[in-house]
Task: inverse folding
């Protein structure tokens, strides 16, 4: 059974960390492509959408947690949501948006001290 104990970062160790790791990897790969003007494939968009949904679900259980780590993970999730919305509506995703995604991922990663 997954742990529901809050760790030193103020997050649920197992579900939130697992969801964050997946989101960090998938969003980082897409951001590297997008920031360099390369095409993000449909399969990558789908993986990003799934990882974002999983992270949002894991975060819902801890919506009252206000640690720096949780705030950083929420920001990464919000940036991903915004990027996915732009993609779904056919809006361009300029390199500044991709760089913001990379920055949000890096900041969350640093907060979790993985």
Result:
């Amino acid at each position: 059974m997954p742990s529901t104990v809050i760790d030193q970062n103020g997050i649920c160790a197992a579900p939130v960390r697992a969801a964050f790791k997946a989101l960090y990897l998938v969003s980082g790969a897409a951001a590297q492509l997008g920031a360099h003007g390369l095409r993000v494939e449909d399969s990558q968009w789908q993986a990003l959408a799934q990882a974002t949904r999983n992270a949002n679900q894991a975060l819902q259980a801890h919506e009252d947690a206000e640690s720096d780590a949780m705030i950083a993970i929420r920001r990464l999730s919000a940036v991903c949501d915004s990027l996915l919305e732009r993609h779904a509506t056919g809006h361009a995703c300029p390199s500044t948006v991709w760089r913001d995604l990379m920055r949000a991922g890096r900041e969350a990663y640093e907060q979790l001290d993985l």
In short: Residues 13-35 form the longest helix (23 residues). The two ends are 22 Å apart (CA to CA).
